[in-house]
Amino acid sequence: MLSDSESALARAVLIHGPISRSELTSRLGLSPPSLTRLAKPFLDAGLLVELDDRTDGSVGRPVRPLDVRPGLAHFAGVKVTGDSLHVAGTDVRARLVAYEERPLHGRDPAGVAAEIARAVRDLGLDRIAGVGVAIGGAVRDGRVVEFAPFLDWTDVPFAELVEAELGVPASLENDLVALAEAELWFGLGRDIPGFVVITIGAGIGYALVVNGQVVHSREAGVGLGGHIPLSTTGPVCHSGHRGCAEAMLASGSIAAQVSAAHRRPLDYAEALRLAHDGDPAASTVVDEAATALGRLVALSVNLTLQPAAVLAGEGIGLFAVAEARVRAAIAADRDPRAEPVRLYVDESGFSAWARGAATIAIQDAVERIRLDQPVQDLMTAPAGSGETRGATP
Amino acid sequence: MLSDSESALARAVLIHGPISRSELTSRLGLSPPSLTRLAKPFLDAGLLVELDDRTDGSVGRPVRPLDVRPGLAHFAGVKVTGDSLHVAGTDVRARLVAYEERPLHGRDPAGVAAEIARAVRDLGLDRIAGVGVAIGGAVRDGRVVEFAPFLDWTDVPFAELVEAELGVPASLENDLVALAEAELWFGLGRDIPGFVVITIGAGIGYALVVNGQVVHSREAGVGLGGHIPLSTTGPVCHSGHRGCAEAMLASGSIAAQVSAAHRRPLDYAEALRLAHDGDPAASTVVDEAATALGRLVALSVNLTLQPAAVLAGEGIGLFAVAEARVRAAIAADRDPRAEPVRLYVDESGFSAWARGAATIAIQDAVERIRLDQPVQDLMTAPAGSGETRGATP
DNA sequence: TCTCGTTTCTTCCGTGTTAGAACTAACCCA
DNA sequence: TGGGTTAGTTCTAACACGGAAGAAACGAGA
Fold first, then answer.
1. I need a surface site. Which of A60, A210, B311, B340 has the fewest CB within 10 A?
2. pLDDT digit string (tens) for B130-162?
3. Between residues A2 and B87, which one has the greater pLDDT?
4. Hey, where are the domains in chain A?
5. Residue B54 CB lies within 7 Å of the nucleic strand C
């Protein structure tokens, strides 16, 4: 187990790419001697390397930036829905190197674990140091699914099952928490200490980052953000809320409204395309949705006091079609004296979920680092019973 | 300046009252030897004392709980509005020992500072170790008022002015942040790491605590929580929002609605009394307000993922009159799978604001502790230019 | 070409914080 | 009176950290 400073160093190099010791001093609040001392074991173990970044024209001794050793490891991330697996292979920085989507043939935990193992193996990646699994529902300690409504699971020790099938450490997390962690480590959060995450797609998801930490409340698993009221005239969601976020923004609801207007079945992509092409019925629905999205963003940033938002999810195409409406709705519900909301759109659609899952595996791998062992052990370390993810109350 | 562990010890003893070293080990994550070592300088300096809590019947050596030395110091807290000062004298745990409200005769900063000094002196307390000032508006570094709309101030170095008048270290903070700090240190937050704070009164205030930290965003000074839309049919606030939190909940708005219905001027207290006595017009207005309050609580806990809320402010009487409506409205906007919202009502009305201000002074005094000086210096230490409150970006 | 200035990084070393082991203190109970 | 139990202390080794001074590696100018 690493000390706090060692963890901070590992995280900073992982997140901020090649970075010199001198820049790390200010970022970590440590002295130059400490950085020399802390970095050496990482270099000796082969986890970090020193780039010889030849001179950039400035005077003085040239910097020797530290970076993660190239090709150190791969990670896998799996988002599990009720009927499909979305599987990503990534490098240590959660950049996609492989991605596949495949249907899920059953819901019993052992079978799903086996399918995950097969899908991860089929990615064909070597040196997989960990697999992250993201799931809609409540997760305890990164190991156990407390409940997952889409899979009908209760208290399933799923990380164990995946580890047994795959022989690689597995990490479990709520899908929205995982996505927020990905944005915090490898997306927007590298520069901003707090923001909300809103996902649109089959459902509406919500997560929150404050003071550089993802809010790990049990609330996160329940999906409270999905039924925030946004319109008094909109359609009704499955739970009976008129004009709630799900009713206004879920792809199925938008497709159904446009289909009804056109009296023929249309899917979400077609609905967006029609709106983009100026079809009046589709435009009305999409404009209402965009206004609702803007209201949701404004409400959440106003109430969380975080002036930034990440929009993601497989239904994010809505934003491209109606960006102006979204921004106008945000501005309308935002005090002009407050700073404008910074909006970041993650265009990667569904793969963002799997990338979030991989981020969880990466974070757990960082916690597993042992500097007194050769580098291979990062990949072959037994999945300890002492995993700490989510263990803090 | 104290080390991190020393600060943690000071804070833990201050907040958790008489507390044994052994309990502190688990709370601070330190070993018994460390607690012996850390506590000794505080005892030697006379800041803490050892209670000899005689046996409670359990076996083993009896505990020697640590506590703050009784009568160590007093603090003053002042909430400044556009036309009044609310001045509290407290002990080291922000418990009121004196309270006074007086009109403000002018708005120029020097004059206000002089009136504050006079009011604090008139409390008649000895050993005042610091004065906290809470103000509606944005505050920088705990020293400067960036802007305060009710006072028409911009960039006023107000802490300096108060220190010059009073000869005691002064600490400045936004009023809602101060109130949230008070709840975090001496109220609800002692047991719960995250909650929202909603105040009702002349205006509607909002603050947020996550992971044991008050969110110190610049947003806090703007008052974004006050104009959250809560009803489509309610009255219009000064800024033109129909059914916003101010329009539904501010005491002036409620009084005006009831007055209009009765065609005679009534104040807020009378409006509440009429509603309590079953007057139909007043009941309608108050019930709508209670429903709006419940919606606001539900929205904020749902979007901050914090299942607890503190209600405070001088208009809090509304809750007592219509508690059932408030709770019903919360439940209606809350997913039944989520845990129920824990509601804490701070009944102390206006003095809660001044108590918040005193809390800021207490926190700053803890940061000023020097263990190598006799205890008197806590009270006579010069107000250093190196105050750190709010200095972190 | 040689020195000087500049910036980065390292070595050496003193300081201060921490916890493990063993111990003492202070009680209850039989 | 002596054993059991829990609280707290003393001693000490480990170690993380930063200050001071120095080394490394460059550009710039004489």
1. A60
2. 999 999 999 999 999 999 999 999 999 999 999
3. B87
4. 4-68, 74-180+351-380, 190-345
5. yes
